[in-house]
Amino acid sequence: MPPANSTPPKWPKTLTADHLHRLVRAERDPRRALAIFDGATAAASTSAPDPITPSPATVSLLTSRLASAGHLPLATSLLSRSRGVFPSVAALEPPFLGLLRAFSRTHRPLAALHLFRSAPSDLALPHSARSYNAVLAALVAHSHLPLARSLLADMRAAGFAPTAATYNVLLKAHCSDAAAHIEDALRLFRNIPKPDVCSYNTIIDGLCRRGRLAEALDMFSEMVGKCIAPTVVTYTTVIHWLAREGCFDDALKIFHEMGRRGVSPNLVTYSSLIDGLCKGGRATSALELLDRMVKEKKLPNTITYSSVIDGLCKEHMLSEAMEVLDRMRLQGRKPDAGLFGKLIVGLCDAGRAVEAANYLDEMVLAGIEPNRVTWSLHARINNTVLTALCDKGELGRAFQVYQSTRTRSISTDPTTFHLLVESFSKNNIEKAARVVLDMLSERCIPERETWDAIISGYWSKKKVRQEAKEIWDHLTVN
Q1: Where is the signal peptide (predicted)?
Q2: Cα separation of 454 and 417, whole Å?
Q3: Contact in structure between 189 and 198 (CB atoms under 8 Å)
C-alpha cells in the first residue's frame, strides 16, 4: 500500500493526463508516485479534480519504477487494474515483459511463471513468443530446468516456433547445468537456424568450463569466419580461460587482436588476464597491463591490485610491489587485510622483517581491524612478522609488535610464544617471563622446551648463580 502519511499533492486547476505523467515522473519515491496516480484517477476524490484517464505511457512508467524498486505486488496490481487504458495488446506487452523480468531479477521465477499463466484471464493478454522466452529465461536462470522444458513443450503446442532467443535460452540451460553433457548443447547449437553472437558466446563459455578449450577456440574462429563480430564478452571468456590454463602467449595475442578489431577491453577482461599472468609467474607482463589499464581510465579495483602485488611478491619484486601499493592508495583505493598480508609475508620471506613490521603498523593505523571473517588472517600475519623479527634478532621491535597484538586481542600461536620466550630469555628475562605469564593466561601450557629456555635464561644471570651457590653452600655446611 502507498504510504499512509503521504502529503496530498497540490493539484493544478485543470488536471490532464499530461500533467499526471509529469507529476509521476518528477516524484522520486515510486510509492508516493502511486499515491499521486491513485488520487488523480480515483472515481471519487475530495482533494483532486475530476478523475482522469491516465496515458499508457504513465502506467508503463509507474509499473516499471515500482518493479525496479521491488514493489512487485503493487506493480502487478497497477497493471491489472489499468488494463483498459492500453489500446492494444502490442501496447500492453512491454510493461508486462518488464514485470516478468523484474520477478526474475528478484529471484522469483515461479511468481513470473504464475503471472505468465494468468495473463490471458487477468490481463486479457494472450501469450506470445516474447513472453514465453522471458519466462523460459527466468526459469533457466534459477535452475528450474524441468519446468523450462515443460514450458517449451507448451510453447510448441501453442503454435509458437522457437526463435533465436528461445534457442539461446535453451543453450544456456544446457551449458550452465554442470550435470548436462556438452554434446547435447553442441547438437542444439547446430540445430539453430542462424546462431547469433549470443549463441556463440554461450557455447564457447560452456566448452571452456568443461576444459574443451581447443573446441572453444575453433568456435571462436568459426564465428569470425561467418562475419559475426565477437563482443567484449566473447573475448573476455576466451582470454580468461586461456590465462587460467597457462596459455599466456595465446591470451595476450587475442587481447591485442581485440584492440585491433576496435573492441575495448573492460575491467573484467583486464582483471582476468592480470590474475592469470600473476599466478603463472608473469608479473612483469601483468604490471604492464596494469599501467595500460590506468592510462585508459579503467581504474583497477582492490582485487586486481591484490593479484599484482601477490604476483610481484612471489617473484621477489618487492620494491615494485610497494610502488603498486602506493599508486593504489593515491588512486583512492583502500587496501584490505589480505592485500597487506601478501606484501608483509613477501617482505618476511625476503628477510626484510623490520619493513614488514612497519607495514603492519600502517595496517593498524589505517583502521584495518580483525573481524569474524578476517580473524585468522590477522593472527597469521602477526605471527609471521613476530617470527621474522625474532629470526633477525630484532627483539625490541618484536616486543613492540607483540604488545600491539595483545592490545588488539590477536592470538599468538604456541610456536611463536616459544620463539619469543627463547629469544627474550637470552638478554631480557623479564620480557620472557611476561610472555610466559601471557601464555598461562590464555591457557596455553608451555612445553618443556619453553620452560628450559626461561630457566636457562635465569641461570645465565650472574646474580642468580651467586645466590644459588650461597644457598647450596649453606645447605651443605648445615
Answers
A1: none
A2: 12
A3: no
Closest CA to 62 of 15, 115, 22, 4: 22
C-alpha cell at 195: 546462431
Phi, psi of 148 (to 5 degrees): -65, -40
Question: Per the structure, how many domains does the chain have?
Answer: 3
Last residue of a domain, one of 160, 180, 198: 160
CB atoms within 10 A of CB 11: 17
> Which three three-digit cell numbers place residue 472?
647450596
**pTM of the entire structure?**
0.72
- DSSP 8-state assignment for residue 273: H
Distance of CA 428 to the CA centre of its chain: 48
Residues 180 and 42 grouped into a single domain: no
Does 32 map to a domain?
A: yes
Which of 136, 160, 184 is the last residue in one of the domains? 160
Residues 6 or more apart whose CB falls under 8 angstroms from that of 68 comprise 30, 102
Measure the CA–CA gap between 432 and 424, rounded to whole angstroms: 5
For residue 308, which phi and psi values (nearest 5 degrees)?
-65, -45
- What tens digit of pLDDT does each residue of 158-197 get? 999 888 888 888 888 888 777 678 898 899 899 888 999 9
Extended beta strands in 264-358, E state: none
Question: Which range marks the domain in which residue 449 is found?
Answer: 418-472
